[in-house]
Amino acid sequence: MLEMSGVAKRYRTATVETRALEGVNLSVLEGEFVAIVGPSGSGKTTFLNVAGLLESFDEGTYELDGDDVSKLNDSKRSRLRNQKIGFIFQNFNLIPDLSVFDNIDVPLRYRRFPARERKDRIQNALDRVGLLGRIHHLPGQLSGGQQQRVAIARALVGEPRLLLADEPTGNLDSKTAEGVFDLLLELHSSGSTILMVTHEDSLASHTTRSIHIRDGFFESE
Amino acid sequence: MLRYNIFLAARGIRRHPILSALMAVAVALGIAMFMSIFTISQSMSKNPLPQKNDFLYRVQLDAGDPNRPGDDPENRPHQLTYMDALALMREGWALRQSAMFGISAIIRPEGAEVPFEVFGRAAYSDFFSMFDAPFKYGGPWSDPADENRERVVVLAASINDQLFGGEDSVGEHITLKEELFRVVGVLEEWNLLPRVYDYEWSPTEDTFIPFTTAAEMEFDRRGSTNCWQSIPGQGHQAFLASECIWIQFWVELSDPSERTSYLSFLDSYANQQKELGRFQRPLDNAMHTIDEWSKYIRAVDEGIVVTIIIALLFLIVCLINSIGLLLAKFLSRNSELAVHRAMGASRVQLFTRFLVESACIGFTGGLLGLVFAWLGLMGIRVLFRGESVVAHVTQLDFSLAVGTILLAIAASLAASLYPAWRGSRGTPASLLRDAK
Questions:
Q1: Which of B1, B11, B346 minimises the CB distance to A78?
Q2: How many Å apart are CA A56 and CA B131, to the nearest integer?
Q3: Is A78 close to B349, i.e. CB distance below 8 A?
Q4: How far is residue B213's CA from residue B177's CA, in Å, rounded to a whole number?
Q5: Which residues contact B104 (CB under 8 A, 6 or more apart)?
Q6: Exposure of A5 by Cβ count < 10 A (0-12 exposed, 13-18 middle, 19+ buried)?
Q7: Among B413, B414, B403, which Cα is nearest to B32's?
């Protein structure tokens, strides 16, 4: 599903070069739930950005579902991101003036699905996260947990091959976080491949595999 | 995707209503000023008889003063002498031809005590079909009426309304210069602006009478007269026999290919005159279509061109303001752009989306600009109330209205290129970082 070998990412300014990722080797199989665990500034989010094709990398090779992504231009990377990856962000990243329906519709629009199919998929995704009754609400009318569920529905709606979650419970209180994490576990048990970055070891203990990251290096599995 | 882009554009406009409104107003003001000026210049340079353009020709014979420059850069008089005009009419080379000049006369309506002055035109019977004069009643006088200097008259609709209450007056009589003229025709409303036959920005005349009759009855002439040589003798006949230049002359050819032949005919006539001691300047005769004549006499004032350039500069200033507003608008929504990029939008798709949003604002600005332009043109009409010419040149027609909106959209798109490029060039990760 995901194969990374020797991947490195550096940020450069006129005077400073920062090594955000170095020699990352990772193989994720279909159906796995992998946690990347590390403290703030360890390179977790950079890794997730590279894995999610949100950012390019400087060295190494990366194959996603058989596609070598290192040589793809922006349009092809965007298409691959749209079709094969679903994102769940720490701060939900819902568009505040779009309804729940229209927020979940965003990835489907770029897939150019017909209206009928989009509607069915959105209803199914909302049903899975238990928010079908809030389809016409605005994000501001929902609680934090509900907003994250909408974000999960948006990530799921295109039936991606890989779900990437960046501290998915980081902005939620413990009870709500538990509910959201249970939803992720449920998705995994139904066959989804999930790659999650987190600083909480307690969450990582529930995944099939956890990897620690420090100063841009993967330390252990 | 276009529908989705329009949907997002509408959201984007609603999210920043003040910035969007400012941009639409900036575009509208620039467009309104430019289109108002452009409308006036277009109307002024418009040929009211495009269907006749390849067939009607203004004739110039160079019978001017050999020692002094004439009244145009090519030194060629715009008008003809009476002798030359009569000679060309006698030859009758063209399909139709008419010598003509403007007249004024006192008209005394039957039964009315108070006479009043009317402006008229002395011409040949061909004049009406040459310039597509529309008849409501009757028609032009006959060719024999020209030859026999008959007292016949064609009335404009307005004067027929005034004298006969708009009824069919053919066969009735009016008094001009104390002689009775029989009405042979009444024109419909005739909006020939500019009045191409003498290129005046005035409505067509009230009365039309035979050229020969006007010459015989010594009607007062209206228009310029250039007498570069002293008149040999006294009285009207001496004036008619002089080298004074005061007659406009137009011909209609059956085919544009006859133009060269007619010009040869004019040269041949001029060479004959040279043998008689006239036409002392080098051979330089000419023929102009209506469009050519308009350019030749610079019918559209150079000042209007300068005004168009100033209006264009104003439009550019408005667009530069729009660029700033768009930059502020597009760069302030990183969080939303980050989501779209993460969900699969490419740079090109974001760029296109910004252009669609700008085009929507441009469309709104165009509609608003159309209203502003219309108000501006109405303002000019109010300032020059009663001037039919002003009413004519301040008409905003359908094609110009469509042009206004298209120009507004194009201008908005041009103004949005840089902001759209700036707004769409970030990587999804950088947009996500900025959005936090």
A1: B346
A2: 73
A3: yes
A4: 12
A5: B117, B118, B119, B120, B219, B220, B222
A6: middle
A7: B403
pLDDT tens-digit series, residues A139-170: 999 999 999 999 999 998 998 989 999 998 88
Domain A31-56+73-220 belongs to what topology? Answer: Rossmann fold (3.40.50)
Please state, in angstroms and rounded to a whole number, the distance separating the CA atoms of residues B405 and B408: 5
CB half-sphere exposure, A221, CA atoms < 13 A: 9
Q: Report whether A195 contacts A85 (CB < 8 A).
A: no
B15, B340, B436: residue with CB nearest A97: B15
Beta bridge partners of A61: A5
- Nearest chain B alpha carbon to A108: B343
Measured between its terminal Cα atoms, the distance across chain B in Å is 28
Domain ranges of chain A: 31-56+73-220
**pLDDT at residue A220, as a whole number:** 60
Residue the block writes with tokens 């060309």: B88
Taking contacts as CB-CB distances below 8 angstroms, the residues of chain B near A89 are: 342, 432
CB B104 within 8 A of CB B176: no
A79-83, A102-106, B377-381: least confidently modelled range: B377-381
Question: Which residues make Cβ contacts (< 8 Å) with residue B71, sequence separation at least 6?
Answer: B77, B78, B226
